[in-house]
Design brief:
alpha+beta; 5-stranded antiparallel β-sheet; 21% helix; flat
């Protein structure tokens, strides 16, 4: 039971109002909601307690948060259980849902696969999963949780032989209960059955943005009540099956893989948390906006409520005015009804001739008589004013009709107006005097009166002729009176102001039931009195008329007129009959004897007020308390159940059942249980107990407790009071009975214990009883009862005993070096803790050992792990099968750092560990030299890698471009060969083999790559074998149907393989040039293409014959008869084509000139076209060459040769391709050219500069240069005189001659 609600709320208010570093982090606007939610929760579940504790969030912050911890009751299969929980309120509560955990104790486990509780204990009920403020609240969520747990309990008793799952590494998912560590911490010896590491759960395990610390204190102080029989939830829930044993290699691989999974899971959790935080911020902003809308709606609602309230008030005021007008209307109608007879009498008198009973004429002016002198003066003044007003009207009418002269009219008007003024002035003075009168005087003077001449018709025996004015009647408050004509005596016939005529008619007195006041009015008789009508208004007569009711009688209200109005008080009755009904008329009231009343006696009552003459008896079996005061039996409530009984639903009394008592006269529907006074375990000897002293009988299993709260191991002494009952002490049995006799505890023989009371009840539950008979005396777990009749003895190391029984021996843990420890804690007599070897969880193997199953016997055998295996890394408790794990494939154990040198024996000694055995960590497994660790096992290092061994590292790769002679290398020195496709370059550095070479992996370190055979190449760099040299190199290709690579040339070219698109044949040079000459008729010439040997690009393709300009006249002015200038043999046929063919047929021909006018053909053969040493001594001639195509397009990689690739065109400057055909003999060539066609180029000091100058000029067809130094390309003046560089210029003047310059593919270089 938690603290009282008021105390808990005071503590909570102090916590929520605290400021500073220790303040709780909730928003101020939410603190009132938190207080209300927790208040409702404590009212519904009083066993919960409010606390503030540190809470660790997964972003590293430590917060002081409010939590509710304790137990909630559930009902499962007709039994009540208490489930321990803790509910944390996160810092964004109530916008965020609470975090609720189930907290199992050391003997409990969480049910696997629960519908709303995960393995970590986190509750995910529908209310929490769909939390939405303000519709959701904490108490409803916990109430729903209790209902769900009643249908499916989340906890059950740990069954015998239960083995907890192995602890998970952080980040492996919610497989570990966050409170398992707290439970394990309660077990001595550091055991706990492998229930997982203690401490706070990992954020990933909790599956939530926040996680709580270990709930050790709550778990240690809580337990779940077991159903009868001690089965707990284990009776309905079977223990979880033991996990299947995995292959040792697979287990080890899984352990290593889990480390990487944990990192990935942690990163994923971080991402999800960031997304969740962003969503929560958005939701909070949206909620704030909705709250603002709600605030505005509430404000507007208040405004509307104010308007409605105003309208209601206005309505109430209107209804009040209506009611007031109604009352005034009623009063006016009542006055008219009271005086209507006067008008009827006047009308009747008028109709009868105006005579009354005495023959007087009716005087209407006397109908209304003023009440006093002021009223009389006011009436006379008003009558005079109105009379004057009428007279003035008559005079005005007479003047207008001419019957009265104006001057007479004016005179009379002045006189009448003066009278009218005086009458009105008098009226104003009278009105002022009336306003100054006291209210009582005005009221009496304003009372209605009978007017003079009113005929008296009510019971008057006097002569009818006797009349009197009202003002003349001497009787006070008399409204109508007469005077005897004979005696002159006055007699009143009707009184005013509620009075009645006295019996002698000489006065108006107050009626019976009323009493005259000091002001003269009549008031109702006081309560408790009755008032007779007095004989006169004399004080003595009035005093005699007032009578007090008899003792213990009273009136039901004011205005009692007779003694019969006095009734009996509650609790009293009249002793004899008394007059009933109205006032007694037969005898004077003053002579009536006083009433006699008596109080009701025992077991009867009177409700009074009805003039009862007898009391009502109590119902059967009910009694009144003899101690009640006289006259207090005023109702049936005084009839109660006597001591020893209680009041049933039908109103009758029944005796208290056994175990209950009633000590007073009561109206309770039940008796007081003995347990409310003495606690559980106490009862009565029989039914009908009438005091707590009858609660002296002990139930079986309970021992007496003295008044000083000491549990006794003996019977109560005579006169010794029983203070309470407690569970029978340990080592005793209590058969039950009188606490002073046979109910005394009895000690168990042979030192045996009793089991009951070892598990205290949860907070708020009744204590469990102890042993009730000697049959419950047994040996506790970890102890046995020797067969020789001796006292109980403790189990030795290597053995255990689980049950509370009388077994004569302990159970061995199994064959092999098993040990057992005292891991189970029992409560010994006197409350001391005793650790015992009380379960198979007490058995353990030492580090470096494993446990295997013996198939033939089913026993678990312990053994030291052999070489190349490893066992537990610490003492492993429990007898679960856990064999030694083999090292990863290919690894071996080595060293002593991770090996147990010796192990303890059950006798307390030690023994050495066998050589090479007893390893206790996978870290003791390492690779041998030349082996590497991959994918959870070791394997031989492949070629190109190495590993020195003695580690769990993968093989290291050789340096770039290097490899080993084979697998299994153990050092980097073994990387002595170039890897396939690699070799040394010119600088000695290792790199991929360039295109056109290869390396097959057999080259020694530092050797270059092997070149491909002539004319062949590779597709890319880094070729790994000679078979890669299967492509024709640039400038090479196949011809015809042959497959052998040959040099391309003679009008063909062979591009590089990447430009061929898979083809290997030499390609024909492009040729699209046409030279047009218009002489009498247009003549077009399309030259064929030529190319040098090993041509590899269209830029190597030249037009065999070309001219300096594309169209029109162009000719080269040569000197006829000069050396090398001669007509073509046979005249060349008279056509340009024939002339060209003649030049083609002459190997030394450099140009052909055709004359369209004569049909002649002149050939120029300047000298040898073969390059050689002649250039160095004689210089030479260089003739410009043209591309065979108008635009030359270089290849783009990947385009198929001949498939129409279209890269950007390359155009040479000026005329030509930048290439020249070279002829030896510069002086002879200069002598053949007309001097006017030679132009010196003084700035050209090298052959390159000379040809470059020609390339800049369109009409330059070539150059004549002097001796050339091949090394420097410098040129000298021509031998015999002449510049070093002369440009040969063509002519475009109108002429019939046309010259075509020849390009020779084998003479394109001066080298």
């Amino acid at each position: 039971m938690g603290p009282p609600l008021g105390q808990a709320l005071e503590y909570l208010s102090a916590v929520l109002s605290q400021r500073g570093p220790q303040a709780v982090p909730y928003e101020e606007r939410n603190k009132w909601t938190i207080r209300e939610h927790l208040s409702d929760l404590l009212k519904m579940f009083p066993n919960l307690t409010i606390k503030v504790s540190e809470f660790h969030s997964n972003d590293g912050r430590i917060l002081n948060l409010v939590k509710a911890e304790g137990t909630i009751p559930i009902h499962y299969q007709a039994h009540k259980y208490n489930i321990p929980i803790v509910a944390w309120l996160p810092e964004r509560y109530p916008l965020a849902a609470p975090l609720v955990y189930v907290c199992p104790t050391a003997s409990m486990v969480i049910k696997g696969g629960h519908s709303c509780v995960d393995p970590s204990g986190l509750v995910r009920s529908p209310c929490i999963a769909h939390w939405l403020h303000p519709a959701s609240d904490l108490s409803s969520s916990v109430q729903e949780m209790a209902m769900l747990f009643g249908a499916e309990p989340p906890l059950y008793t740990k069954p015998p032989g239960y083995v907890a799952p192995p602890a998970h590494a952080p980040g492996q998912g919610p497989a570990t209960n966050p409170y398992a560590g707290a439970a394990a911490a309660q077990q001595p010896g550091g055991g706990g059955g492998g229930g997982g590491a203690g401490g706070a759960p990992d954020p990933a395990l909790a599956g939530h943005a926040l996680w709580g610390p270990a709930y050790a204190a709550a778990a240690a102080g809580s337990s779940v009540a077991r159903p009868p029989g001690g089965g707990g939830f284990g009776a309905q829930q079977p223990p979880p099956p033991a996990p299947a044993a995995a292959h040792p290699k697979a287990q080890h691989a899984g352990e290593l893989a889990e480390n990487f999974k944990a990192l990935a899971a942690r990163a994923l959790v971080g991402r999800l948390q960031a997304g969740l935080d962003a969503y929560n911020r958005h939701a909070a902003e949206e909620m704030d906006a909705l709250l603002e809308v709600q605030r505005k709606l509430v404000s507007r609602d208040q405004q509307l409520q104010g308007m409605v309230s105003g309208i209601q008030q206005e309505r109430a005021g209107t209804e009040g005015l209506v009611a007031q007008l109604g009352r005034q209307t009623g009063a006016l109608e009542a006055w008219l009804a009271a005086h209507e007879w006067k008008a009827e009498g006047l009308q009747a008198a008028a109709a009868g001739g105006g005579g009354g009973g005495g023959g007087e004429a009716l005087d209407v002016n006397k109908v209304i008589v003023p009440a006093d002198d002021l009223s009389r003066q006011a009436l006379a003044a008003q009558a005079e004013d109105l009379a004057v007003e009428d007279c003035l009207l008559v005079l005005e009418k007479a003047m207008l009709q001419g019957k009265l002269a104006p001057e007479v009219y004016m005179k009379q008007v002045r006189l009448l107006c003066r009278k009218q003024f005086l009458a009105r002035a008098l009226g104003l003075k009278v009105a002022q005097a009336q306003r100054q009168q006291p209210p009582a005087a005005r009221s009496s003077s304003a009372a209605p009166h009978d007017g003079p001449g009113c005929v008296l018709t009510h019971g008057d025996t006097w002569p009818a002729q006797s009349r009197v004015l009202h003002a003349e009647c001497p009787i006070a408050d008399c409204e109508a009176c007469r005077q005897s004509p004979t005696s002159g005596a006055w007699r009143c016939t009707a009184c005013s102001r509620g009075r009645v005529v006295a019996p002698d008619g000489a006065a108006c007195v107050c009626a019976a039931g009323s009493l005259a006041t000091a002001a003269g009015a009549c008031a109702p008789c006081r309560k408790g009195f009755y008032c007779l009508a007095p004989a006169s208004n004399a004080p003595a007569a009035v005093a005699r008329a007032v009578r007090k009711c008899a003792k213990h009688t009273l009136t039901l209200g004011r205005g009692a007129a007779t003694a019969a109005a006095c009734v009996n008080e509650p609790g009293y009755v009249f002793a004899a009959a008394k007059p009933r009904g109205g006032a007694a008329t037969a005898a004077p009231a003053a002579d009536a004897p006083p009433a006699v009343v008596l109080p009701c006696g025992d077991d009867e009552y009177s409700e009074g007020l009805q003039s009862q003459t007898s009391c009502t008896p109590c119902p059967s079996g009910l009694r009144t308390d003899p101690e009640d005061a006289s006259g207090s039996h005023t109702s049936a409530d005084v009839c109660r159940a006597p001591p020893g009984s209680f009041l049933q639903a039908d109103g009758s009394a029944a005796p208290c059942p056994v175990g209950e008592f009633s000590a007073t006269y009561n109206a309770d529907d039940s008796c007081t249980p003995c347990s409310e006074v003495f606690g559980p375990g106490v009862t009565t000897a029989g039914a009908g107990a009438n005091s707590s002293a009858a609660c002296r009988v002990l139930l079986p299993g309970f021992a007496p407790v003295s008044a000083r709260r000491e549990v006794l191991e003996r019977a109560l002494a005579d006169g010794e009071a029983l203070g309470a009952a407690a569970a029978c002490p340990l080592g005793f049995f209590c058969a039950g009975g009188d606490a002073g006799g046979d109910g005394a505890p009895r000690r168990c023989p042979r030192g045996m214990w009793t089991q009951q009371g070892q598990e205290p009840a949860a907070e708020g539950d009744a204590p469990l009883p102890g042993a009730a008979s000697g049959d419950e005396c047994v040996a506790p777990p970890g102890w046995f009862l020797p067969a020789d009749g001796g006292d109980v003895a403790e189990c030795g190391s290597g053995t255990f005993k689980e049950g509370w029984d009388r077994a004569d021996a302990c159970t061995p843990c199994g064959p092999g070096p098993w040990l057992s420890n005292r891991t189970l804690t029992l409560t010994a007599a006197g409350g001391a803790d005793l650790a015992v070897r009380g379960s198979e969880e007490s058995c353990f193997v030492q580090r470096g050992m494993g446990v295997t199953l013996v198939p033939s016997t089913g026993e678990r055998e312990a053994a030291v792990c052999p070489p190349d295996t490893y066992g537990a890394d610490r003492a492993r408790y429990g007898r679960a099968v856990a064999p030694c794990r083999a090292c990863p494939t290919g690894t071996v154990t080595a060293g002593d750092a991770l090996r147990a040198a010796s192990f303890a024996t059950p006798s307390g000694g030690s023994a050495p560990t066998p050589d090479g055995a007893g390893f206790f960590s996978v870290a003791a497994c390492s690779t041998p030299p030349g082996w590497g660790y991959f994918g959870g096992h070791a394997q031989l290092c492949p070629a190109g890698t190495y590993n020195a061994g003695g580690n769990l590292l993968p093989c290291s790769a050789c340096p770039f471009g290097l490899t080993t002679a084979g697998p299994g290398a153990a050092s980097p020195e073994a990387c002595s060969l170039h890897a396939a496709g690699y070799g040394s370059n010119d600088g000695g550095a290792t790199g991929p083999c360039p295109r056109g070479s290869f390396s097959d992996g057999t080259l020694a370190r530092g050797a270059p790559c092997t070149p491909c055979p002539a004319g062949t190449t590779t597709a890319d760099a880094g070729a790994r074998a000679a078979a890669a040299c299967g492509l024709c190199a640039a400038g090479w290709g196949t011809t015809g149907r042959g497959t052998e690579c040959r040099p391309c040339g003679g009008g063909t070219y062979g591009p590089a393989p990447e430009y061929r698109g898979g083809a290997s044949a030499c390609l024909a040079c492009p040729a699209d040039r046409t030279y047009v000459f218009d002489w009498e008729a247009e003549d077009a010439y399309a030259p064929p293409a030529t190319s040098p040997a090993l041509a590899s690009s269209p830029s190597d393709c030249l037009a065999e014959f070309s001219q300096a300009v594309p169209a029109g006249a162009f000719w080269l002015d040569l000197l006829p008869g000069a050396a090398g200038v001669a007509p073509a043999p046979g005249g060349a046929g008279g056509t340009l084509a024939a002339c060209v063919e003649a030049c083609r047929g002459d190997d030394g021909c450099a140009a052909a000139t055709h004359d369209y006018a004569t049909g002649g053909c002149t050939l120029w053969s300047p000298g040898s076209a073969a390059p050689g040493a002649a250039f160095a001594t004689h210089g030479g001639l260089a003739m410009k060459a043209e591309f065979s195509a108008k635009s030359v397009e270089p290849f783009s990689r990947g385009a198929a040769a001949g498939a129409g690739a279209e890269p950007a065109a390359v155009t040479a400057k000026g005329m030509g391709s930048g290439q020249f055909t070279y002829y030896a003999g510069g002086a002879a060539a200069a002598a053949a050219v007309a001097p006017g066609s030679l132009r010196a180029a003084p700035g050209a000091a090298s052959l390159g500069a000379c040809t470059g100058a020609c390339s800049e000029l369109s009409l330059c067809t070539g150059v004549v240069f002097g001796p050339r130094a091949a090394a420097s390309d410098a040129i000298a003046p021509l031998p015999g005189g002449g510049p070093a560089c002369q440009l040969v210029m063509g002519s475009v003047t109108t002429d019939s001659r046309r010259t075509l310059i020849r390009a020779k593919a084998d003479a394109l270089s001066p080298e």
